[in-house]
Amino acid sequence: MTKQEIFDLINQNPAFHLATLEDNQPRVRGMLIYKADESGIVFHTGAFKDLYSQVLKNPKAELCFNDYQKGIQLRVSGELETVDDNRLKDEIAAHPTRTFLKPWRERITLEEFYKLFKVLRLKNGKATLWTMETNTAPKEYITL
Q: CATH no. for residue 50?
C-alpha cells in the first residue's frame, strides 16, 4: 500500500482509537481525525483533557484505524506535536463535520477558545497493515 492509499484509508475511515501512556499505564480512547495527508495526521482535543496532559508528558502514541468493509486494520505509531495555528483552529471549528464544537466555541471568548482548543499532529509516523490474510506474516512498515 502506498502512502497516498494509507492517507485515503484514514480519511475515508476517520474514527480511530488513540493509545497514550499515563504513569506507565496505557490509555485508549476513540477519536475522530480532521485530516491525513503529507503534513501528517491531524486531530484535536481540549487542553483540559487527560489526553492532552498525557501527550505533554510523553508524545509517543499509536493510532489504530479500521476499514471494516475491506477487513483492514491500520496502526500508525509516532510522536504527537501540538500545532499552534489559529487559522487551522478556525478552519476545523467551522468545518461541517465539527458542528459538535459550536456550542463550546460560542460559550467562551475567541482568546479562550484558541488557548483551550488543541490541535495535534502525528508526523513521520510508521504505519503497518493487518488483514486476516497477513495475520501470520512478518510486519511491513511504511513511513508516512
A: 2.30.110.10
